[in-house]
Amino acid sequence: MISDMERGRRKPGHYKPLLCDLFGRTADELGFPDDQPEAVLVPAVDLSAMLSQASAVTPATVQDLQRQVDGLRTLDRQLGSPAVIEPTRHLVNTVQDLMSHVFACGIRSTLAAVLSDAAALNAWQVLNAGEVQGAWKLHDLARTAGLESAQPHLLAHAMGEQTYGLLDLDRPADALQLIEAAREVAGTRVPQLLRAWLHAAEAEVHAALGDGLKCRAALDAATKTLPSDTNNAETPYVSLDEWHLERWRGNVLAKLGDSTALQSLLVALEGTPSTFVRAAASLHCDIAQSLAMRGDRAASLRHAQQARTLARQTGSVRQLKRIDVVMRKTA
User: Fold this and answer.
1) How far is C-alpha 132 from the chain's CA centre?
2) At what angle do helices 277-293 and 317-330 cross, to 10 degrees?
3) What residues have CB less than 8 Å from 48, skipping those under 6 apart?
């Protein structure tokens, strides 16, 4: 065995320290060099440089960062997640780095607000790409940043969005606990528009649980809470008006197998803005599902195919999975 080691035919393995002790030599002297690759030393981040960079952040800088988030959100709605997921991820990392090295309370809290918004946007993009675990971590970051920003609407929104990860994992009971907690955080301290959104999200969770009574009650609460002025300047991450709510109602009722869902969906389809491509994909999918339940297989298939085309255009893996389920039922 030892002669084989000397000839290089066999590695010493766990015998190496024993042989070193036996012959009183180092591994190199015995011809047994360390098999482990040399560790590559990564230069430490220059803390002083990072602190200097962060100290240059001004209120105007924070506004510029928020404008970048808003721009990426618009592109996400129009082009889909694949086009913006990496730029958004990079922006999240940038803001997080800055925030980690800022100690002035005022700037830090405003950066936290931008980080919460950006992380929630990135989480939604990642969720649409089918990466539930990655989305969960980003939503958790959005929640933590929302807490530090001391703006309850950011925390409540991040929690509300996070429920969709639980729904995608088929954990509707957990999703209900989370959306109820989000509504508790929101209370009456957040804009009406967000409160209406949270009610509609809760309706979707009740639909997943098959509770039609509570689902319809939550939809009614969303309708009553929706303000007449649906300007979302305070909550740019929420797009909700009568059209959106009608679309949402149709989506939720379709999941319950309600025959009245189709009317809401068709009304919403007629008023779909051209820039809301992902929303249009969802609508066609819901219409296909409702038509399939009515036995109109040909029309159902047409809408399912249109939904698939739009979902591929926006790169929404979540939508494609839903469409595949509908198409299998239609076939």
Assistant:
1) 8
2) 20
3) none
Classified as helix, coil or strand, 129 is coil
pLDDT digits (tens, 9 = 90+) for 61-109: 999 999 999 999 999 988 888 889 999 999 999 999 999 999 888 999 9
- Please tell me the distance from the alpha carbon of residue 280 to that of residue 282, in angstroms, as a whole number: 5
**What domains appear along the chain, each with residue ranges and CATH number?**
1-36 (no CATH), 241-331 (1.25.40.10)
**Tell me, what amino acid is at 2?**
I
Tokens of 91: 């922006």
**What is the widest separation between alpha-carbon atoms in the chain?**
89
Query: Torsion angle of alpha carbons 130, 155, 247, 79, nearest 10°?
Result: -50
Which tokens hold the place of 289? 């599902």
pTM of this prediction?
0.79
**Contact, 254 vs 291, CB < 8 A?**
no
Q: How far is CA 190 from each of CA 56, 70, 217, rounded to the nearest angstrom? A: 32, 20, 21
How far apart CA 7 and CA 1 sit, in angstroms, is 10
DSSP-based helix, strand, coil % in the chain, nearest 5: 75, 0, 25
Per residue in 138-191, pLDDT tens?
Answer: 999 999 999 999 999 999 999 999 999 999 999 999 999 999 999 999 999 999
Which amino acid makes up residue 204? E
Which residues make Cβ contacts (< 8 Å) with residue 144, sequence separation at least 6? none
Residue 200 and residue 222 in contact, taking contact as beta carbons nearer than 8 Å: yes
The whole-angstrom separation of Cα 153 and Cα 187 is 10
- For residues 31 and 176, what is the distance between their CA atoms, to the nearest angstrom? 64
* CA gap 226, 243 in Å, rounded: 11
